[in-house]
Design a protein that fits this description.
By secondary structure, this protein is an alpha+beta fold. The chain contains four helices and eight strands, in the order H-E-E-E-E-E-H-E-H-E-H-E. The protein has one domain: STM4215-like (2-Layer Sandwich). Strand 3 and strand 4 form a beta hairpin. The longest helix has 17 residues. This is Pvc16 N-terminal domain-containing protein.
Length: 180
């Protein structure tokens, strides 16, 4: 499902920039993968995935097997960069920012059917990590820093795999007994 979200983000960029063709690719950017960076391409790199803290403790929901855990909401962290010359990188990243600013929320009609069946929405937010954090990210990737933009993407919800549910309370009764 996470790959489908990445593909949806790439599709938003491609739809907003039809004059540039298919210029954005998925890449880990990690030098440990020993995969060369493509030349003159936009790179959409998933850096991290975590549970969305604000939606962590939702109550149980009704499932086919009774009450089950609420669907999981994720926060995905992306880096977008361009491998061409610096001036063109500025232009291309500007187009990415424009694309995500124009369409910050993706709903099922905007998504591929396989993803639309799994999520209610995808929310895209530009974030600005500080200088130290950017240096740490590029250092962890083992690459020199490049001009880039960073996004947090909220994905809600990811349904649980149906297993045994907790059932339902059918009757709540309190009996009082006289104590001698």
């Amino acid at each position: 499902m996470i790959l489908e979200v990445s593909e949806a983000l790439r599709d938003v960029i491609h739809q907003a920039t039809p004059d540039l063709g298919s210029w954005v690719v998925h890449h880990s950017l990690s030098q440990a993968d020993k995969v060369a960076l493509p030349d003159a391409k936009g790179i959409l790199a998933l850096l991290a995935a975590e549970e969305h803290a604000h939606l962590r403790n939702r109550p149980l929901v009704e499932g086919a097997a009774g009450l089950v855990r609420a669907p999981l909401s994720l926060k995905l962290h992306y880096l977008v960069t361009f491998t061409g010359v610096h001036d063109e990188a500025q232009s291309r990243l500007g187009r990415v920012v424009q694309a995500f600013h124009t369409m910050p929320i993706l709903r099922p009609p905007d998504l591929a059917p396989s993803l639309a069946d799994q999520v209610d929405s995808i929310v895209i937010r530009l974030v600005g990590p500080g200088h130290d954090e950017r240096n740490q990210i590029w250092g962890a990737l083992g690459r020199p820093g490049r001009l880039s933009v960073f996004y947090e993407v909220d994905v809600a919800p990811i349904p649980v795999l149906e297993r045994d549910g907790a059932g339902r309370v059918r009757e709540h009764r309190i009996d009082y007994v006289a104590v001698p």
